[in-house]
């Protein structure tokens, strides 16, 4: 039988799958209970309090190769939505407690991208809008990490990279060793330091990573527990000026502070 109506030859409009009658979306009372379930199953450290930014960031996950061993391990070990939001909460608590929300960077989104690449991980802002961040994490690195360490290492790297999404850097002028040191200081404070880390003063203060992270931890004891927050705020809205930053935050030059740190390490041996 021929049909003349043009509408009968158009492709049908896409249809959503039918919801089962018992689905909560079918009621007016659709409370979201996934957060509670995630908190119960994720086994992440409980934070003493939350620092809430003016705008809640959009968190996204992109898996470039689902079949890779690293993606497989990540999905098996980590509740991704909870781990990402917990990393944000961890970073904001350590860097912005007691700080006006208007002094927190306006990060609008963080996308975690798991893919095969060189190195461990890095964070970048989109060229068009630096408020949108991407964390690239090497799936090969995840798969080569011993299984007993995989979950802690994933969470630790996530926290480190999440710091780069929220820290101030004097418009990128701060020494890389300082911004990397702040990132590892937050990882240390979050209880996610890997077992091979150790205090080490046989280098310069801005050697970065855990070398500078432990130095910042020592500064907390000597110059107040908010010293890293003050250093971070001193890198907001102006370029890095080493003389004035360390004088205003600690009353001394960083070289003098580093010499004291070295001395304290020798005395502790
Ligand atoms: Zn880093």
Automatic annotation (TrEMBL):
Sequence segments annotated as region (Disordered): 1-49
Domain of life according to the entry: Eukaryota
Biased composition (Polar residues): 1-10, 25-45
Pfam families: BSP
Full protein name: BSP-domain-containing protein
Species for this entry: Clathrospora elynae
Taxonomic lineage from the root: Eukaryota, Fungi, Dikarya, Ascomycota, Pezizomycotina
């Amino acid at each position: 039988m021929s049909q003349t109506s043009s509408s009968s030859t158009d492709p049908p409009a896409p249809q959503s799958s039918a919801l089962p009658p018992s689905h909560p979306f079918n009621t007016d009372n659709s409370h979201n209970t996934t957060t509670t379930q995630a908190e119960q199953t994720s086994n992440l450290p409980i934070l003493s309090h939350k620092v809430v930014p003016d705008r809640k960031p959009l968190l996204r996950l992109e898996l470039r190769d689902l079949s890779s061993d690293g993606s497989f391990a990540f999905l098996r070990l980590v509740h991704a939505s909870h781990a990402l939001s917990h990393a944000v909460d961890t970073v904001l608590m350590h860097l912005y407690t007691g700080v006006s929300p208007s002094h927190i960077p306006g990060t609008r989104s963080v996308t975690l991208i798991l893919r095969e690449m060189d190195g461990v991980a890095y964070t970048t802002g989109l060229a068009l809008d630096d408020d949108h961040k991407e964390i690239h994490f090497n799936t090969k690195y995840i798969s080569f990490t011993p299984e007993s360490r995989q979950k802690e290492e994933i969470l630790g790297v996530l926290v480190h990279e999440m710091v780069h999404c929220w820290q101030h850097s004097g418009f990128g002028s701060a020494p890389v060793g300082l911004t990397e040191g702040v990132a590892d200081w937050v990882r240390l404070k979050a209880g996610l330091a890997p077992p091979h880390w150790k205090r080490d003063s046989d280098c310069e203060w801005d050697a970065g990573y855990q070398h500078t992270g432990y130095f910042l931890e020592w500064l907390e004891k000597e110059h107040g527990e908010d010293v890293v927050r003050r250093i971070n705020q001193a890198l907001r809205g102006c370029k890095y000026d080493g003389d004035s930053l360390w004088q205003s935050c600690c009353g001394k030059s960083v070289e003098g502070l580093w010499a004291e740190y070295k001395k304290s390490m020798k005395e502790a041996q």
